[in-house]
Write a structure and sequence with these properties.
Elements: H1 2-10, E1 42-44, E2 56-63, H2 81-87, E3 92-93, E4 102-103, E5 106-111, E6 118-123, H3 137-149, H4 157-160, E7 165-172, E8 175-180, H5 200-203, E9 222-228, E10 232-237, E11 248-255, H6 259-267, E12 273-274, H7 280-286, E13 292-296, E14 302-307, H8 317-326, H9 329-336, E15 341-343, H10 366-375, E16 396-402, H11 406-420, E17 425-431, H12 433-442, E18 447-452, H13 454-457, H14 460-473, H15 479-490, H16 494-510, E19 514-520, E20 523-527, E21 561-562
Parallel strand pairs: 1-21, 2-11, 2-12, 16-17, 16-18
Antiparallel strand pairs: 1-13, 3-4, 5-6, 6-8, 7-8, 9-10, 10-11, 12-20, 13-20, 14-18, 14-19, 15-19
Amino acid sequence: MRQLIRRMGKALVLTSGIALISTTASGQSPGAGVSGASVPPAKFLSATDNQGPKSAEELTLAMWSGAGNVTTYTIGNSWNDWVLWLVFDKLREPSPYVGKAEDWLATSVTQISDDARVWEIKLRDGVKWHDGTDFTAEDVAFTFEYYREGPANRWTHHASAVPRMVGIEVIDRLTVRLTSEMPMPNFDRVTAADLPIIQKAQWQGVEDPRSFTDLGIGTGPYRIVDYKADQFYKFEANEDYWRGAPVVKRLNLVMIKDPQTMFTALKTGEIDGAARPVPPELVLQWKNDDDLELVSSPTLWGAWLDINVSRKPFDDRELRNAVTLAVNPEPLLERVMLGQGKSGKHGWPHVDSFWTKPDLSAPHDPEKAKAILDERGYVDTDGDGFRETPDGKPMSWSLKVASNQPLFLRAGEMLVEQFAAVGIKTRVETIDPGSMSALWRTREFDLRIADITPHGIADQDMLIILYRGDKNREMIFDEEKAEIVERWHEADTREKRLQVSYELQEYQTRYPTRVMLWYPETVFAYRWQSYDNYAPSAGYGVFHKYSFLPDTLRGDTVDPLLTN
């Protein structure tokens, strides 16, 4: 392990002789009374159906994004939140993306008011924190209070904004009652299935959680026992886990940020699994590899074109309508992703999310795009083939792509051609990955291509969080969209909220702030002779805590597999 970690710091020697490309980790059944899309089942892609060991003493897996000390304040996004779930549990599991969940830390999550503002949670007795102390209602109440009042993280909006909790009451040792400012008819399917519960004893005196460096204490199937940020993490099985002891006793996670290095390490046997989707070219190459198992699992990721609504002329919603009409996602999927996935023509949110309008679509119509641009005064006044703005300035946009994203670069070049076909001049500009990440905050761009995780495109509540962010940036207040959002907040049943959500999706697809390009078929690879008991879970892929629990204890947290 130590030798491997030292080598990761310098980058592995490329010995496999395979052609590797650098890429990012881009890529349910409906509940009663609500219709929606369903996530397709996973499938094995390898030439043979291997049957390897169903347990292991130790595994070494590669990860690619930092996790700090594995707390909700150091794992700041959904790129690798599966690492957090090794240590922490939620009230219900597995995820908010599939429209259903089963009780986990909770034994029941019940709506007790007609307006869906008040819910009562009954907790499981006998659950222990990793330090041996009892898990109680005090911990759950504290979690909601801390997230509501303290610094923001990826999960705090569930207590501070959507929904916002105004009443947090401990009824008894194992009962909590929550009251929200507005109705929360999907509390049991979204909030309860997404919010990690933290220990009151560990966090109640922490005023600056981002500088907190102690090891996170959870109730999950693994204890974190050692780490060095951006290098390695060591986990040991929690043999007293309330759900049952994990079948893998020790997990070693090594940080390998460069995809080429990661997949070479997998190919040469230096790691047992790569927690990063395999690039399309490698999927085709590795199907017949005797040592590797390939499995397609629904991670609900996507790639989108982000439009900066805080910069002119993108304050013009009709212009944005023309932009989406000019984009044809079909050739992007075929030529960039080699057909592995679904095209962005299905619109946003994710086509396979439970919460997505079943017939949602983003039409490609360059002639209509031209007509809109003409009507809005974006015309070619100097005869160079490209349009000028209504005030006569050149209409030329920069399309930014991270320098380590060859797939996005290829897509950007194709988008330049598609925009040119309607008279819009664009150019691709590559920037370093660090600067690319900062664009979300700085907004120093016209257009950019980026990955988006399921939290952004498969979680109904995130539609509203993203709307709030856009609203703060938009130069012109959009009254029509604001009215839809207000009705979404007021909806007090699952069906009402879903129907209003459909309206918002239609509106966002017509006047986009982001245009979906593709939804990848995410394929993962692992060495089956080391461990062959991974299972898919929608939104999480195959690398997650459920894959390390006995089959009989996984329940509805995993999706069925299709064998060859």
